[in-house]
UniProtKB/TrEMBL annotation, chain A:
<feature type="transmembrane region" description="Helical">
    <location>
        <begin position="349"/>
        <end position="366"/>
    </location>
</feature>
<feature type="transmembrane region" description="Helical">
    <location>
        <begin position="179"/>
        <end position="204"/>
    </location>
</feature>
<feature type="transmembrane region" description="Helical">
    <location>
        <begin position="230"/>
        <end position="248"/>
    </location>
</feature>
<feature type="transmembrane region" description="Helical">
    <location>
        <begin position="28"/>
        <end position="46"/>
    </location>
</feature>
<dbReference type="InterPro" id="IPR000412">
    <property type="entry name" value="ABC_2_transport"/>
</dbReference>
<feature type="domain" description="ABC transmembrane type-2">
    <location>
        <begin position="148"/>
        <end position="374"/>
    </location>
</feature>
<keyword id="KW-1003">Cell membrane</keyword>
<protein>
    <recommendedName>
        <fullName>Transport permease protein</fullName>
    </recommendedName>
</protein>
<keyword id="KW-1133">Transmembrane helix</keyword>
TrEMBL record, chain B:
<feature type="domain" description="ABC transporter">
    <location>
        <begin position="342"/>
        <end position="569"/>
    </location>
</feature>
<comment type="similarity">
    <text>Belongs to the ABC transporter superfamily.</text>
</comment>
<dbReference type="InterPro" id="IPR017871">
    <property type="entry name" value="ABC_transporter-like_CS"/>
</dbReference>
<dbReference type="Pfam" id="PF00005">
    <property type="entry name" value="ABC_tran"/>
</dbReference>
<dbReference type="GO" id="GO:0005524">
    <property type="term" value="F:ATP binding"/>
</dbReference>
<protein>
    <submittedName>
        <fullName>ATP-binding cassette domain-containing protein</fullName>
    </submittedName>
</protein>
<feature type="domain" description="ABC transporter">
    <location>
        <begin position="8"/>
        <end position="243"/>
    </location>
</feature>
<feature type="compositionally biased region" description="Basic and acidic residues">
    <location>
        <begin position="325"/>
        <end position="337"/>
    </location>
</feature>
<keyword id="KW-0067">ATP-binding</keyword>
């Protein structure tokens, strides 16, 4: 009797939750439309790559050698060089925001280059330091090669240490495309949003409308309430996950080097964590407004700011680092980025999945406890 | 009596909550009682008596602080789930899922209670038939009227036959017709299935149906017994005073209720005044109070005994019963019958295809108390909102305080006061702050404002420093009324001001209303308590947007014919006659077409 009662009640409650979810349009908008918006927004709108950076070249040395050195700028897809006749004009341009950087080739460049001491001046607009750093890299990269050739062609052996050229190779994200690491992070954001945001309203709404009081005085068990509330949102979360994976593969061509099934399993595990967190917040606040605010503050914001989605955690103060380690999102963020770009690395997978599973169990147990059939 | 015959047995039960001021408040203060199986048992008591807390403890939703409570032989505190598996409980606000249909709500509860498939069909058919909802199974619960929601709540509670049924004030805020339907359902189940039922209620006619009544007040048990036995406490003390011709019953009632040393209670009834005298009151003094009104003994009722017990308990408690807010120096009545302050002609309001108010006409004279009655969804609120200028009329003529609402709405609004059904003041402001704010909103400033606020605080006997949100219901009501009267309006609109207020506070409230009317303020009021219609000079009964009756309470009772012995049955009769006439008209139309 007890087992079949459990099944009947669970099915009945799940059916009820599903109906309520489907009939509430705002729910579906948050659950299905918002993730699409996020994917497009973060995929296309948010990028740390600099394309067609405006670099103004001031050529004070008009020798063919000097021209040859800066010619490399034109070949770069990241740089759109312009020319200025004097340093004064170039400075005016950078002040007016018409250019992002000035590359000055001093009048004695070719002479000093021949002596093995060629120097160029690169002035960067540091207002946006991310962009400035990127441009520095691009300019350096596009100049190094012709400079090297020049030296080789001259047949002069370079003076020992002065002319060592670093040949860079970026691993895992060869093109250094920011979508490659933003899109996997997006899965974390979407799972957080679905979980915490949607479920945070579920129990609070029942408290506010007084439906729980009636529900409590039936043979229903708290665990059944929790499971029934989770079920429809796991489906929504799975749909969102599929959308994210498809977008990653076909829209943004992000490599998926780890196994697909591990990506899916760990994502669902994280979905459970955030659903559990939302439910727990909802059951303890008993107020829809407070619950949604709490969910935003406790899950979405930290997942965005502190999980390593955009900002490298190692650059943060120790206190923030400790906090970020407490967040389940941080563990999933690290895992999913590794899975996408580096591949299966089992110690990492096992450790992070174990942490997520622990979180999911604890949060669901807490939700169950906060739904103990009591009014005081 | 063996234990098997008891469904609930309570011993020295205590439950305290944290009060709004941080102190402990005993909601249940050492109660012991035994409820017999197979019977209908009532818990009666005013607001805050502890009825809901007791019910919730029986349902295993609250844990007692001390004492023992066993339901169906099970210790609830130790094993609430076993109790919850066997009982059915309908909370005051039954939690229907508003976005689920009627059928889906029923299915959900049937599944949760594990009602077998075969039994279910028969049960649903019966429930839908009894609640008269078979036509609406596909309709979302949120779209039902208040009375229908309550009936659906009962149906969901009764998807199976429980070992004990707990009903917490099932008829609060429900109109007399739906109330009667609810009780028909409960009665049928008791007769057919020998159900044990515990019901809490504020209606004495409901308590009178019960085999056993427990009277509670402030967490204490005042009395228990069969209604007939409890009634006896008022034996020999109950009288009816016949009002002299031309005098409104409420004037005599006011005179009597203002003398608590001799009179326990007085209410207008059927144009006369029913009163209870104090046991030790001096005959001569009562004669003085009555003056030229004849009085003769009448049969005592449960309500009389109940009022006596409440007054006694309040007196023992050392707390003066809520004193009515009246101007002791009653001013000369400023009544002017010739010049109506409200004129309504052929008023119509449509929402799309739906006619909420159909061609309604009436006048209200200055200083009159005009009652607007009708079942849930009858169009009362719509009429009300149009009169206050909150909602434009679709067509018709509407004049308030001599101003046409079509072109002088703002000006007309300055002449009216409005007290809404819900407490619409700021809970975290003090009484004085609330009054100053609303006075300012009505255009009072500086000295004039301070003077009016102080005068109102005194008149309504309020504590200016108290936080508004934590006042008892009766005081909240009083504050709302004081606020609505700050700008000294000519007309005061009150929308169901007495729902959820206990009988003592209601008496005090009506005493204030009658004295306001005496001073010339016109009162328009809606209510679900039909006996309160007796305080009105004239009443109108609305149903489905149409005016079914209009006149003095006596005239309306007469219109109801034989059924009109009391206001409640007169109301039911008139609404049913109206509905039958409408059905016939519809049928005639069909035939003609």
């Amino acid at each position: 009797m007890s087992a079949s009662g459990f099944a009947t009640r669970l099915v009945a409650l799940t059916r009820k939750e599903t109906r309520q979810m489907l009939r509430d349009r705002s729910n579906l908008v948050v659950g299905l439309v918002l993730p699409v918006v996020l994917i497009l927004l973060f995929g296309y709108g948010l990028s740390f790559d600099v394309k067609d950076a405006r670099v103004t070249v001031v050529l004070e040395d008009s020798s063919p050698t000097a021209r040859n050195v800066v010619a490399g700028l034109r070949g770069s897809p990241y740089i759109a060089p312009t020319w200025a006749s004097s340093m004064a004009e170039a400075e005016r341009m950078i002040r007016a925001g018409q250019t992002d950087a000035i590359l000055r080739v001093p009048g004695d460049f070719s002479r000093r280059l021949a002596a093995g001491d060629g120097q160029l001046q690169l002035l960067l607009n540091g207002v946006d330091s991310n962009t400035a750093a990127a441009i520095e890299g691009y300019v350096g990269g596009s100049l190094a090669l012709p400079g090297q050739q020049q030296v080789d062609r001259g047949g002069n052996k370079p003076a020992a240490a002065a002319n060592i050229t670093i040949v860079q190779r970026m691993w895992f994200n060869e093109a250094s495309e920011s979508t490659w690491y933003l899109v996997p992070g997006l899965i974390v954001l979407v799972m957080t949003l679905i979980g915490a945001f949607l479920t945070s309203l579920l129990v609070a709404r029942e408290w506010e409308r007084g439906t729980l009081e009636s529900l409590f005085v039936t043979p229903v068990r708290p665990l059944e309430l929790v499971l029934a509330k989770l079920a429809p949102y796991i489906v929504i979360g799975a749909i969102d996950l599929i959308m994210c994976l498809l977008a990653a593969k076909y829209l943004f061509q992000v490599p998926m080097r780890g196994s697909l099934w591990i990506i899916i399993v760990s994502s669902l595990l994280y979905l459970l964590v955030s659903l559990g967190l939302g439910l727990f917040i909802s059951a303890t606040t008993r107020n829809q407004f407070a619950a949604s605010q709490m969910a935003l503050l406790a899950s979405f914001m930290p997942a965005m700011m502190l999980s390593g989605f955009v900002f490298d955690l190692r650059n943060m103060p120790v206190v923030i680092q400790v906090i970020s380690q407490v967040l389940p999102a941080t563990h999933f963020m690290g895992l999913i980025k590794t899975l996408f770009m580096a591949g299966d690395y089992w110690p990492d997978i096992l450790r992070n999945c174990a942490i997520l599973a622990l979180y999911a169990t604890v949060l669901i147990a807490l939700s169950r406890r906060s739904l103990a059939k009591k009014l005081d | 009596m063996s234990d098997q015959d008891l469904t609930v047995s309570v011993e020295n039960l205590r439950k305290t909550f944290k009060g709004p001021d941080g102190g402990e408040v005993a909601a249940i203060d050492g109660i012991s009682m035994s409820v017999r199986a197979g019977e209908l048992t009532a818990l009666v008591g005013p607001d805050g008596a502890g009825k809901t807390t007791l019910m919730r403890m029986m349902a295993g939703l609250l844990k007692p602080d001390a004492g023992s409570l066993s339901v169906l032989g099970i210790d609830v505190a130790a094993d609430p789930q076993s109790v919850q598996d066997r009982i059915s409980y309908m909370p005051q606000r039954f939690g229907l899922y508003e976005d689920l249909s009627v059928q889906e709500n029923l299915d959900l509860y049937a599944d949760l209670h594990g009602v077998p498939e075969g039994e279910r069909k028969q049960r649903f058919t019966r429930m839908l038939e009894m609640t008269d909802m078979a036509r609406f199974t596909e309709r979302p619960a949120g779209k039902l009227s208040g009375g229908m929601k309550q009936k659906l709540g009962l149906a969901c509670t009764l998807v199976r036959s429980p070992d004990l049924l707990l009903l917490d004030e099932p008829s609060v805020g429900v109109d007399p017709l739906s109330r009667r339907d609810l009780w028909t359902i409960v009665q049928q189940l008791i007769d057919d299935e020998k159900l044990s039922v515990i019901v809490s209620t504020a209606y004495m006619d409901e308590a009178e149906r019960c085999a056993q009544v427990f009277v509670m007040n402030k967490g204490k048990l005042l009395a228990e017994g069969a209604p007939d036995e409890l009634k006896k406490r008022a034996r020999g003390l109950t009288f009816t005073a016949t009002t002299p011709d031309g005098m409104p019953a409420r004037e005599l009632q006011a005179r009597l209720i203002d003398a608590p040393d001799f009179i326990v209670d007085a209410v207008p009834k059927g144009g006369n005044v029913s009163f209870i005298r104090q046991q030790d009151a001096d005959e001569a003094r009562i004669g003085e109070l009555l003056r030229d009104a004849e009085s003769e003994p009448r049969d005592e009722e449960l309500e009389d005994a109940f009022m006596m017990m409440l007054r006694q308990h309040e007196a023992q408690d050392g707390e003066a019963a809520a004193k009515p807010a009246t101007d002791k120096a009653a001013p000369e009545p400023r009544r002017n019958e010739d010049k109506p302050v409200i004129v309504v002609r052929d008023l119509v309001r449509k929402f799309g295809d739906f006619t909420a108010v159909a061609s309604t006409s009436f006048d209200v004279a200055q200083g009159e108390i005009f009652g607007l009655l009708g079942p849930n969804g009858a169009g009362k609120t719509t009429t009300f909102r149009m009169l206050c200028g909150l909602l434009p009329a679709t067509s018709g003529h509407l004049e308030v305080a001599g101003l046409n609402l079509r072109n002088a709405r703002a000006e007309a609004r300055g002449r009216i006061g409005y007290v809404s059904q819900k407490f619409a003041l700021y809970g975290n402001l003090s009484v004085r702050e609330n009054m100053e704010f609303f006075g300012g909103a009505y255009g009072l400033r500086g000295k004039a404002l301070r003077k009016r606020v102080s005068a109102s605080i005194e008149q309504f006997n309020l504590d200016p420093a108290a936080q508004s949100g934590i006042l008892p219901a009766g005081y909240k009501q009083r504050l709302a009324m004081a606020t609505g009267l700050l700008h000294e309006p000519d007309i005061l609109f009150l929308d169901e001001p007495t729902s959820g207020i206990d009988p003592l506070a209601r008496r005090a409230f009506w005493r204030t209303i009658t004295s306001l009317a005496m001073s010339g303020v016109t009162i328009i009021i809606t209510t679900h308590f039909m006996e309160e219609a007796e305080y009105c000079d004239r009443i109108a009964i609305q149903d489905a947007g149409e005016m079914l009756a209009l006149g003095t309470p006596r005239e309306v009772r007469k219109q109801a014919g034989d059924a009109g012995t009391d206001m409640n049955s007169a109301f039911i009769a008139i609404v049913e006659q109206g509905r039958a006439a409408r059905d016939n008209k519809a049928k005639d139309k069909e035939r003609a077409a």
